[in-house]
Amino acid sequence: MYSKMKKEAAAAAVVSQNGSVNGSQNGLSHSMAALGLDSAESAKAALPDPTADENGGEENDVKVDIKRGMDTATFRRVGKQMVDYVADYLENIGDRPVLPNVQPGYLRDLLPGAAPERPEDFEKVMEDVESKIMPGITHWNHPNFHAYYPSLNSYPSILGDLLSSAIGCVGFSWIASPAATELEVIVCDWMVKAMDLPSHFLSTSETGGAVIHGTATESTLTCMLAARERAIKDWLKEHPESGYFDAFSRLVCYSTDQTHSMIVRNASFIGIEIRRLHLPEGRTSLNRKEFVQAVEEDKAKGRIPFFVCGSFGTTSSCDFDPVEEIGPVCMSERIWLHIDAAYAGAFLFCPEYRPLMRGIEYADSFNFNPHKMMHVNFDCSALFLRCVEDLFDGLKEDLLSGLKLMKIFKEQGIPDYRHWEIPLGRRFRALKIWFVLRSMGLQGLRKSLRHHVQMADHFAERMGADPEFEVLTKSLGLVTFRVKDTDAVNALLYNLICDDGRIHLNAAETGNPPTYYLRFVCTSHAEQKDVDFAFDVIKSLTARLRSRRLSLSEVQAEREKMLNNLAQQRRITSTG
User: What domains can be seen in the chain, in order of their start residue?
Assistant: First the structure.
């Protein structure tokens, strides 16, 4: 208490000396004397030093560049070392185990409980990266990584991200960084042309345009918001006696049980009912009859069908919803048709895969992730729109209507991208796409995509030629297969593969009743020898499995473990 009073009196003395407080000097002198302070100078001395750290050191003694964290000479030196480290990491990634051998919470035991007070040498930081961080990394660009759809990177993309980080702009409007906005418009138009997408997705079209988001989940949520507002506006025109929230409560959207789980999360986020249409055994894509039946049922109940998410390459089997069948229904019913092509969309760079997109001209929005198969590192998701004004209305602000924003965009040809997405701040993602397109060229991208499919073809051939296994599906770079045995045996094989750790893949189940199977995805980094190695591992572990005789309790235990694994995979699904 005395210490607190002494500091308060000292502060008062300093304020009085500076002339900002008027009062009795005699009274102040008596108070200072009582506290053992004989002058304003001694009062100043009693104040805590604002430059002293908690350990008694002085900030003035700290040798650190407060502008950029380190001096330019040091940055040049360690920056070159980091480039070498990254190059060595990617060049020799196959020498590392694809999966980390750590337990949850391992890192807390290795790192201090609080941030350091004083700067540390960057060499020490990098030592900890190699000894503490890298042991806990799952290497997504490893040739033995076959679990999820790839998240490819490349040296040009890494350099683009480096430059974007250095520029450090937050490109929410044109003036915030004109090049960031204009390059985004240009590279999106490049992709529309290179993938032969409908011309109404071009920025130069009458109503359309494109934007780069972070993930497919973000893009789909944005479109759901736009579709919601469009549907409510349509309803209120026909039912002026109704209200906004009455219309809101009637909305319903659609997907199948094979659609990515993001659609369920997004529907929950915006408070909308979703119908997950369950497909019969043997089918993994929606058909027109089932969709029309669901729409008619809901309309009869007074609901408003407003959005359907069609899959262009499902997560579980890389199947394709027949857009040419459901598209006309959406057009006549004014239901927003969104195409989720997160993984498979990049294959439209190759002319031979464009027949897969029949009916895309009906789509209100089309989304794919350059960060999957386009060698653009995470995060990067491109969204193409038929009518940008609908998006403006869905993300409306009080200042400007969607019509006014649309007029500005089309008259100037320059968007303010903060009106095209949920976040206001945004990264300069177009830069890394531009670097990749110029460094690899469309020919390089097509070569990479075709190699990816060829490696999957090779794996499917090896599996199909072995009587031990059956190939369920082969689509682009994904092969689904199983041992010719029970679900429990296949679950045990999957667990053996996980415990073995030499390769990484995952499992899924589809159908009604469900069938359990394993998924094998090739990355563009894998060569034929890597695919053969994966097959040999699976084959040897299957032989080990066959040498065991499972009791009924073991089969039940494996079934329970399988269900837990599937539940975890649904929570940690492939990136959006």
Answer: 158-397+405-436 (3.40.640.10)
